[in-house]
């Protein structure tokens, strides 16, 4: 009875019988379900083909070939079915339906060809396969993250260069100041003209000072389009057409471009973060069958190259290793005794207090160094120092921040090992701590610069007077500090890769002394490398406001950085002892980057709305605040458009819109809750289905064993009966045979 039930269940779900969107039995014949009691498995065999005389058109044949590809059966069986399907007589589709069908086929072929063609031009595609094969998908997630940032900065650099830098370079003719419909800016314009004449830069021809200015962003670099202070505050004359003059509003364009590249970054972050979180949630459901998916469904059967197959094999090995180690560590943590848990909790408290103390000390050190450097540069004896000493003084804050970003994460990496977390949570807690370090150090630097810029003692040109630092153009000054951090970041990455990682590999591989064995090969620390990228991108977003060409510098940096890291990874490093899971890593990386982006928007927004611009430089020198250019631009719009914008910004529109938004959020929340409940019920149903199938298979197995036992019993009975019959015949012969005649003779 159980076999009939199983056959009936398979007949309902089998893909071969013809139902809606299924294979027509006229063309494929019937299938015979045959149970192999020897192996206790179900073997599906193709029966006789009875459809040779059945007619079909080419469209139907095309759809059935697609269904054959989706059949859950072996490649050999699919080839047999396809060959029998292709043996049919096929009629050509004519008319309008035939034309649409052929256009669809042509379009599908074009899409496949285009995908293959552009696949050859995928940036770093072959490098990704090689990295994944040798180090797994967890390490690959870092390089995927780097590639995403590389393209993000390309978009930002194109926007800034097209709408800010290029007009500044091309349209040299300046027209009138942009005042909108306001007539109260005459005094501000006169003050800006006077302060602009007073703002001078010392440019020298000495090659030593030229190099020094390049590294610091001072001197001749200060008068380039690299910094915000060199952009004009007047509208740029484009030309005239039909006696109408056209000009380019540089202050408005500058502010709109800043909003555009921040908005684009936010949209791309939200899209990529949402995608990563969805993938992470989907992959989190694999905990019930993750090994089955990787072992039976992880191989790529389209691989034709031996090297690609070997890389894929190594990648699967790393993923399975990560899963098994994570399960083993989770089992070990669950079996801790009460004393061990108490001691571990106490140790974690002390480690967190140590981390907080290190973060506080790092912040104070950055503040102290920045204040001392400002005092030295504003002192009378500064010009008496040599070129090299001045360079060291100027780079002391950025060097301090860079050294802290190198040393402190190494300390955090060592202490987190004693807290005995899971590999994934260890990565996350280390990332959080190092993020606080990097962002806090940057925040301390910004706060220190803010104190210097907002010093109360200033002249009419907004330049500090003693005891305040004399900063003539604070926008350029902030850009210079960030520019020096960018330069120092590039130098440290190159120095670390070429002068530390490569020599370490040579010492360990060529020298057999005890020191080399103690040092060992370097492991790729994913937390440190990811935080380096987050820190670099944070500088890019912040510096892009004060130095518009910084995104372009980061495009060059990321391109060089990728090849440096790839070469160092493949040549100098070994796979990590504790593999990382890429699906969770990618989403967490994006969350960390989004947090950094949100924190960076605060100082940029504060500068736009609350800080008074410099009066001798920059595109906003005639305005009280940078944001003032927006209302002035709106004042030139038509009256109906101004009234519409005023209504949108009024409470009569915002309150109903807010209520509607809350209703929509509640609706989607309720919908998500309902779907979550449905998913829970479906999981329970799948679990019941699995138990039912296990029960049926066990019944089949028991039935086969009972059948074998019955067959053996019958065989023994038959042998026994044969023995009894033989013995009886012998006795009868003894009784019936005459004396002296053998029993086996015929008598």
From TrEMBL:
A GO term from the CC aspect: plasma membrane
Primary location group: membrane
Region (Disordered): 1-30
TM stretches of this protein: 148-171, 252-270, 342-367, 387-410, 431-451, 482-500, 539-564, 588-608, 620-641, 647-668
Domain TMC residue range list: 473-583
Keyword RNA-binding appears in the UniProt entry: no
GO molecular function: mechanosensitive monoatomic ion channel activity
Name of the protein this chain belongs to: Transmembrane channel-like protein 7 isoform X4
Taxonomic source organism: Lingula anatina (Brachiopod)
Taxonomy of the source species: Eukaryota, Metazoa, Spiralia, Lophotrochozoa, Brachiopoda
